[in-house]
Amino acid sequence: MTHVLKHLKKISIVLITIFSINSYACDVCGCGAGNSSSTQYSNYNYFGLSYNYMHFNYKEGIHSTSPIGTDNINSVQLTGQYFITGRLSINTMIPFQFNEREASTGTVQNHGLGDISLTGLFNLFHNDDNQSLRIGVGVKLPTGKFDLIRANANNASSISATQLGTGALDVIFPLQYAIQINDISFQANATYFYKTENKYYFKYGDQTQIQAKVSYLFKETTKASWSVSGGVSYDKFLNSKTSGSANFNTDGVMTNAIIGLKCELQKLAIGINYQTPIDQKLVNNDVTFNRGLGIYTHWKF
Question: What domains can be seen in the chain, in order of their start residue?
């Protein structure tokens, strides 16, 4: 009997998902969103606080005349890094989401704890102070709430923009390279997110993130140093799946330009980044990314 009930539950969830109106999933919105402030490379121990904002427009229906809505994705993140040895570090991020959807039918808000991530990184370059190559593995825990009813009650990008988390365990594979030559530094990050199925038999598409930037130290005193940076970020999302079957037109790709400013004191680092789109195709062009802003602080110890 228990076996039969499990199958009936699975069938009912599949039917709800299939017959929902225009329910899409693109992990760039909401729980998958992240500004460049969350991927800053640092070679010191710190705990920090960052704020990320991303602004999207989305089409509420399937017709060309369908109303255009707005998603405002806000995330406040507690971050930290600790070097267990000179080569091995542990990184963590605890996000709190404040999401707002402005639609023709009204405004919907959703806020709370997001998905906590924990990552270990190992530096392959042991005796080089100006260069590092770090590889690692991590997990993104299902601490943020995933609501199937909320997901199916909205239109384009609803499964992500109104969610606090994916509801599933994700495995993270990061690769980071950094080099410093006099006043110029270069940093490249690549991260692959392997997504798993949540208890509603829903699986977000696997995700690839790549960032590259160049920074220039333009002013340095005994008390503070100032640097500017410019770079490019690339995000790719595969189609989501329900009970193993692909939900087509739920994938996406996005390339953004990033500019930033950073000030470092003896025990404190403060930075700001701004993102603007270069090229994108999100959820069959039903979702448009407009801009992103990131502000972060690191307290060194």
Answer: 2-300 (2.40.160.40)
